[in-house]
Amino acid sequence: MSLEKCQNITSLNLNLWWNNLGADGAKNIGMSLEKCQNITSLNLNLQGNNLGADLGKNVRKSLEKCQNITSLNLRF
C-alpha cells in the first residue's frame, strides 16, 4: 500500500518474484498502481507467486488504467 504514496514516480522496477505474495498482495499492488498515473516505464516481475490466471487478469486490468505507460515488462 506504500506504493500509493508514490504517485509522482515515472519509472518503476518492482521485482517480487518468489515472494509468496498471494492473491491479496497482488490485488493490492494492482490497485496501488492504478493510482500511480505518472508511470511511463514499468517492469513488474511477479513470477513464482502462484497467482493464478484470474488474478493475473486483475493485475492486467489495473494496468490498463495506467494510460501513460509506454514501456511495460510484465512477468507472471
How would you describe the overall organization of this protein?
GO terms for molecular function: kinase activity. Keywords: Kinase, Transferase. This is Kinase domain protein. InterPro entries: LRR_dom_sf. It comes from Tetrahymena thermophila (strain SB210). Helix 2 (52-64) links the parallel strand 2 and strand 3. The protein has a 3-stranded parallel sheet with strand order 1-2-3, with no helix packed on it. The model has no long low-confidence stretch (mean pLDDT 86). The protein has one domain (2-75). The chain has 2 helices and 3 strands; from the N terminus they run βαβαβ. Helix 1 packs parallel to helix 2 (52-64). The chain is an alpha/beta fold. The protein has helices spanning 22-34, 52-64, and strands spanning 11-15, 41-45, 71-75.
Number of domains: 1
Largest sheet: 3 strands, parallel
Number of strands: 3
Mean model confidence by pLDDT: 86
Secondary structural class: alpha/beta
Instruction: Sum up the overall morphology in one term.
Output: globular
User: How is the largest sheet built, in terms of strand order?
Assistant: 1-2-3
GO molecular function: kinase activity
Keywords: Kinase, Transferase
Protein name: Kinase domain protein
